[in-house]
Specification:
The protein has 395 residues and is an alpha/beta fold. It has twelve helices and 17 strands. It has a seven-stranded mixed β-sheet, sandwiched between helices.
Length: 395
């Protein structure tokens, strides 16, 4: 059997229709398949590859760490230099109260840890999420989804979850002294990009303060420079109590994190101990790759160029097929106002050598989220190809 048949037979599938691109090698913003076809990765592995693929400084950091040590002990027991140095580097970029990092394997695991932290710290049982959000597919994280589409086959889910409308000031009254935490993305991705209004997020912060409720920001997808600042909340005139990160955090390797005040996170370590544990959380290899990625982003100023690049993409994409382009920074939704058209565009993109995807709760739009270090020439190549795709679509 060839590799594609073995893939379908022996690798667990997430959908009945995988793209079946057989990867041979990667470099920069490009993915090459085994036939030699070259694809522009216009979604950076779903916001994971902030510096594209096989960045030499990231590869070098991985190789150096692999030759030093990999997994001496489960997370939280031994002092491992990559974990410690990366945690210090992260908190140095953040407000003073976000001073402690609890590493996990993934974004979903970070969400699970945040929910446990909120219940343990406040002694309350209610968690409030925003409608239209996606926070992961583990049991607890899936329970935070308001839409039944992806969770209806897995009931009963976690109790004590309630919902408010994103950007709706009236709904803030639903946050009470019984609410352990509100979890939200400052910029929702799954509905096809909804940007949080600063006034709304400031009012949300105020209501949480009034009720003693923890405010958790999920910046797993939009964080790490993709919004044009290190984290999107920096643009909102406020800050959360708990910040969640993953995806780009690991420099293309698996890594997630809860970031909060040390006094807050410390409740997970006592009465009882081991309140939240993770065997591979903060793996030294992932921390080394993530640290190298952040060093490059800061030293070479890529984050500061994000907004300009986003504007270059939007300015180039003028076409009658497009109803709207939404987003902040290099996380954009191209909305066609029609699911059948979006599906045709998605298929045609692969034919024209562009890797893109739809949004979980909005299948009439496609996602554009390239590596942050994409060049102007590469942007022009991408938009030229996209316009060729749009021209090829029969309506």
């Amino acid at each position: 059997m060839d590799l594609k048949h073995l893939f379908l037979q022996h690798v667990g599938q997430t959908s009945p229709f995988p793209t079946m691109v057989e990867v041979d090698r990667v470099e920069g913003i490009y993915v090459y398949d085994t036939s030699g076809k070259k694809y522009i990765d216009a979604i950076a592995g779903i916001c994971v590859s902030a510096l594209g693929h096989n960045h030499p400084k990231v590869v070098s950091a991985i190789q150096k760490q692999a030759a030093t040590y990999l997994h001496p002990m489960v997370y939280g027991e031994f002092i491992l230099s990559p974990q410690v140095r990366y945690a210090k580097m992260l908190v140095d970029q953040l407000p003073e109260h976000l001073n402690c990092v609890f590493y996990t394997n993934s974004g979903s695991e970070a969400v699970e840890g945040a929910m446990k932290l909120a219940k343990r710290y406040t002694g309350r049982g209610e968690i409030i999420a925003c409608k239209g959000a996606y926070h992961g597919s583990t049991n607890g994280a899936m329970s935070l989804m308001s839409e039944p589409k992806y969770k209806k086959g897995y009931y009963p889910l976690m109790p004590g979850i309630n919902y408010i409308n994103f950007n709706d000031h009236v709904d803030l009254s639903k946050i009470t002294t019984q609410t352990a935490a509100v979890i939200t993305e400052p910029i929702q991705a799954a509905p096809g990009i909804r940007v949080g209004e600063p006034e709304y997020l400031q009012a949300l912060r105020k209501r949480c303060d009034e009720t003693g409720t923890l405010l958790i920001f999920d910046e797993i997808q939009i964080g790490f420079g993709r919004s044009g600042t290190f984290f999107a909340f920096e643009q909102m005139g406020m800050a959360p109590d708990v910040l969640l990160s993953a995806k780009a955090l690991g420099g293309t390797l698996p890594l997630g994190a809860l970031i909060a005040d040390r006094k807050l996170l410390s409740v997970l370590s006592k009465n009882p101990i081991l309140g939240f544990i993770s065997t591979f959380g903060g793996h030294p290899l992932s921390c080394a790759a993530g640290m190298a990625t952040l060093e490059v982003l800061l030293e070479e100023g890529w984050i500061g160029q994000v907004s300009e690049k986003a504007e270059r993409i939007k300015a180039s994409l003028k076409h009658p097929l497009i109803k709207e382009i939404r987003g902040t920074g290099l996380l954009l939704a191209i909305d066609f106002g029609s699911e059948p058209i979006a599906l045709k565009v998605l298929d045609a993109c692969f034919e024209h050598g562009i890797i893109t995807d739809f949004f979980l709760f909005n299948e009439q739009a496609i996602r554009i989220a390239p590596p942050l270090n994409i060049t102007a020439a590469e942007i022009d190549d991408l938009t030229k190809r996209l316009l060729q795709v749009f021209d090829s679509i029969e309506v």
